[in-house]
Write a structure and sequence with these properties.
Layout: E1 4-5, H1 8-11, E2 20-32, E3 37-43, E4 51-56, H2 62-68, E5 74-83, E6 91-102, H3 116-121, H4 130-152, E7 156-157, E8 163-164, E9 176-177, E10 187-188, E11 191-192, E12 203-205, H5 210-220, E13 222-230, E14 243-252, H6 256-277, H7 279-288, H8 293-302, E15 306-309, H9 310-319, H10 336-346, E16 351-357, E17 373-381, E18 385-392, H11 397-406, H12 415-422, E19 428-434, H13 435-443
Parallel strand pairs: 1-2, 4-6, 7-13, 15-16
Antiparallel strand pairs: 2-3, 2-5, 3-4, 5-6, 8-12, 9-12, 10-11, 13-14, 14-19, 16-17, 17-18, 18-19
The protein binds adenosine-5'-triphosphate and manganese (II) ion.
Adenosine-5'-triphosphate (ATP) binds near residues 241, 246, 387 and 433.
Length: about 475
Amino acid sequence: MSVELMAVGEALRAESIGTSVRIQGWVRTKRTSKAGVTFLEVNDGSSLQNLQAVVPETLANYEDLVLRASTGASVNLEGEVVASPATEQVTELRVLCLDVVGDAPDYPLAKKRHSFEYLRTIAHLRPRTNTFGAMARVRNEVSRAIHAYFQDNGYLYVQTPIITGSDAEGAGQMFQVTSLDLERPPLHEGRIDFSEDLFGRATHLTVSGQLEAEIMATALTRVYTFGPTFRAENSNTARHLAEFWMVEPEISFCDLTMLADVAEDFLKSICDSVLRNCPEDMQFFNDRIERTVLSTLQHIIESDFVRLSYTEAIELLRASGRMFEFPVAWGADLQAEHERFLTEEHFKRPVILTDYPASIKAFYMRLNDDGKTVAALDVLVPRIGEIIGGSQREERLDVLERRLGNQGLDPESYWWYLDLRRYGTVPHAGFGLGLERVVQFITGMQNIRDVIPFPRTPRNVEF
Ligand code: ATP
Ligand code: MN
C-alpha cells in the first residue's frame, strides 16, 4: 500500500476519498466519545477547516497516545480518507497509525477564544489560530497578486537599498543606522563625527525606495519595488507600523491621470484575486471579523473610483456641515476623519484625491501651472482612509532645484537625482501602497498589528 503525504486542505476534498495518506500537523481540538473513539481536529495551515481524524480504540497504545495528542501537539497520522457521516465535512481520516511528534502540555491556546491584544503577547503561537492562519493565507495571496499584476503588465521587479544616505521624503522620521560605539562616539568640534562611521557619513533605514526606483524607471521604463520600509514615527494608531512593506511602481512617460488609472486597476486586480483564490478565508473574515468585507470588495471591483481634486474635497467637507475634530482649511493636510467621511459616507466608494497644496507635499512632486498645487494623488478607501500615496514627479531641472531650496534641502546631496533631469528627462510618476493597509482593508481587521506576523510599533519588538 503506497502512502501519500497529503495536505489537510487536499484531504478535505471529495476527490481524496479512498486514498491512503499521511497527514502531518497540529491538534486543534480533541474529543473522546463514549463509543470508544477519539476525534482529533488536525490543521497544517493549508486550509481554514480542520481535518477530522477518527482514532479507534483498537489502536496499539491507544490510551497513552490519545492522552498525549492534546491541543497544540504535533502529530503524524496515517490512514484512509473516507466519506464523513457528519454534515460539517465531506471527508474524514480513518486513522491506522498515530504518532505524537511533539507533546504540548499546558498549551496556552487551549481555551477557545482569546482577545487580539492577548494574542499579540504570544505572537509565536498566534499563527495557529483560525484568524491568523487565514490572515497569513490572504497576505500571501495579496503579495502574489501584486507581483502578478506588475509582471503581467510589463514591469520589472527591482530591489532598492534598505540602508540609505538620503531622506526620500525630506522630512521623514528615520531610524539611524550606525557602526559607531554609541557609548563613546568619536567627536569633532563637539558633535558626533560620522566620517568615522562605516559609510563615512550618517545613514538611515529607508522610508521609501522611490528615489532609487526613479533611477531604474528612467532606464527601464516600468519598474516596481516591494520591500520593507521603516518609519520612526512615534504614533500609536491602528494603521501605522514602524516597519511595514511597501509596493512602489515607478513609470516613465506617465502623467497623473495615467497613474490614477494604474492605481485603480491595480487595487481592483488585488481584490479580485483574493475573492477568487481565498473564498473560504474571506467568508471567515466576513462572518467573524467584519460583516461587510465581501460586499465591499465586490463593490470595489465593479464601481468606478471617484476622482476629485483636494480643493474640491475641501469645499465639499466644509459644505457638509459636519463637525470634525480637526478643522478643515485649504492648505492643511486631510486627517483620517476627513478621508473616511469622503469615502465612507459621502461617495461610498474609493476616492482618488489629486492636486494637493505644494506646501504640505514632498519636494519631488510636480508643480502644477497654478504654482500652488502639486500633481499628487492619494487613494482613499472605506475604513482605512489613505491606502495609496503617489505623484507625478517634477521632471524640470530648474523647478526641482527651486523646490529643494524652498524646502531647505541641500541640492548638493541630491546631485544624482538632479542628473536624471539633466540627461534625458521624461514625465514620470509613481505611488506607494502599504501592504498592511491593503490586508487590513481586505480582511476587515481593526488593528494593523494583527495583519503582520511580527509587528514593530513603539516599545514593541519582541519576536
Ligand atoms: P499616512 O498619512 O497614512 O501616515 P503617509 O502619507 O505618511 O501615510 P506615504 O508616505 O504616502 O504615507 O506612503 C505610502 C503608503 O504607505 C501609504 O499610503 C500607506 O499605505 C503606507 N504607509 C505609510 N506609512 C505607514 C505606516 N507607518 N505603517 C503602515 N503603512 C504605512
Ligand atoms: Mn501619503
